[in-house]
Amino acid sequence: MQIGQFARIERRFYWLLVALAALAVAAGFLAAHAMEEHGHSITGMSNQIVWGVPHVFAIFLIVAASGVLNVASIGSVFGKPDYKARAPLSGLLSIAMLAGGLAVLMLDLGRPERVIVAATHFNFHSVFAWNVFLYSGMFAIVAVYLWMLMEARMSRYAKPLGLAAFAWRFVLTTGTGSIFGFLVARQAYQSALLAPMFIVLSLGWGLAVFLMVQSAIYAWNGLQLAPAVQTRMVRLLGVFVAAGMYFVLVYHMTNLYWARQFAFERFILLDGAIYAWLFWSGYVVLGGIVPMAIFFSPQPRGPLAAVAGSAFVLIGAFAQLYVFIIGGQAFPLEIFPGFAVRSSFLDGSIDSYTPSLPELALGVGGLGIAFLITAVGVRVLRFTPQDDLGSHPVLAGARD
Amino acid sequence: MSASPPEPSRRALLGAGAAAAAGLALAPGMRLIELAQARSAGEPASGLVRWGMLIDANRCAAGCTACVDACSQENGLDSAIDLRQRPQWIRKIELKEDRSGREVSLPMMCQHCAEPPCVDVCPTGASFKRADGIVLVDRHSCIGCRYCIMACPYKARSFVHEPLTHQKADVPRGKGCVEGCTLCVHRIDRDKKPACVQACAETEQGAMLFGDMNDPSSEISQRLRGAASVALRADLQLDPGVRYLGV
Known about the structure:
The complex is a heterodimer of chains A (400) and B (247). Chain A has a single domain, classed as Formate dehydrogenase/DMSO reductase fold (Up-down Bundle), CATH 1.20.1630.10. Chain A is 72% helix and 1% strand. Chain B has 247 residues and is an alpha+beta fold. Chain B has a single domain, classed as Alpha-Beta Plaits (2-Layer Sandwich), CATH 3.30.70. In chain B, a hairpin with a 5-residue loop joins strand 2 and strand 3. Classes of the chains: A mainly alpha (400), B alpha+beta (247). At the A-B interface, helix 6, helix 7 and strand 1 of A face strand 2, helix 3, helix 4 and strand 6 of B.
């Protein structure tokens, strides 16, 4: 195939992908409009399960946005050249996912048009209010960091900015974990472990997203990642997955130690139908054991292994968030220990939740926003890692 | 000598007349004091008062929903939406003790905590506590994030899932906002009891007692001194304004 012909097909395919992402974004906005028009009655949420699938998507995107910046941190803060070359892409993905996650979170509000109230009225006792500053600060720091990385004259400031971004994202994910950690009302939350657990999970989810995007960009451009770098990155992801599983294990073990938490743990791990199934099959097996087997296998690990393993990690992430957020709310509040409880308000009952189409569309719309920003960013600016351009058949030939 | 019926002495007659005149003269004054105690529009709630409720579950009849019905009527909460999504400011809870099988019925609503978690977590400050202890939601600054519902240990708040019509002038509500028991603040400010308490009294159950917990001479304070009441989720030390007997 001639280069001109290839370029034409490639351009068409690119615009097709952008159009599909734009369609997902449009569907998300349409869903948000429907929820604004009819209220949340068109969702599967209730007065017991008040945060549904949109929050699963939003929290995934926000937590992964923090974790994906780890690639840049390893480069800028710890001075690893392989990661330094990937820092701009890591920063772009961070901004893209943060934008997608926050859009979902804001459009799911009961009164999204009052977002200006949220930006001008602050109750500093509220973890949510802290997060407003943490999210906007993250955008600003990562944007300036990207500028320092991509502007040669400013490169000497990249390291201090990288350090600031490194610290900021730790605080940001602590804030996200603390949204749940400070909730004393519900059995599933109220644990100081949640903040560090979210930080560790963010590292795995973020790196998984990064590896998938990087593999796609390399395949698209006919580039080849050096096998040593590939192996190092997937092994690192394997370590993050193992560390995440360790935190999840400790979280459940501490719960099992307390008699008052036993019924909740039994629900999530054993009796909770969809939640127990998602936890064991989705998170533990598909999201943990399978990717670790792929990443730590002695066989050669090509790009396919990186993509497949990362995809499994992301399946596990969604399964775990669904169990944590929705399963955690489905279990009834323990107001009267030692009593069987019933009422018209589902006291003492497990709430059943089925996500509706608008909720799913809103969540997918958030993914669409992140995809769109990444696709356009990579196309118009130099976000592709520059250290492997020598592996390109045409570019390598041109250099010779 | 025959006995004649005693005639009212002139002194007694004068006494009764004076008492009646004094009563007539003082009654408008007493009414004025009552009116003066009710808050006028624009006057801030007093921190000297802590409104609260004592619920005697021993007197609460299983199946009786007088308090719930009165609340719905007073606050215009009629809705045909699915029970999962329907706002419920007050609900009846039926309890059965696991060990003994003892059955208890009680009403449950916002506990108007002195340390309310809903107020702590609200990002915009829409959830707030009045000086007199009533916990409310400012419908103008609630963004509908539902964090307060996640934080309330009593499941006392509801989210308005549907468009609303025919609202009561005294009780503004809004689709997409969070709401809960206001302790009938609009009635309290007019020196009336909450609708649920009044309805309960009218059924002659008299399971709900409302009053100022800061006033040592109030009936609620005296009852709280005289019997061991419980605060629900006492482990959280939220100092709720609603206490229970017989749980």
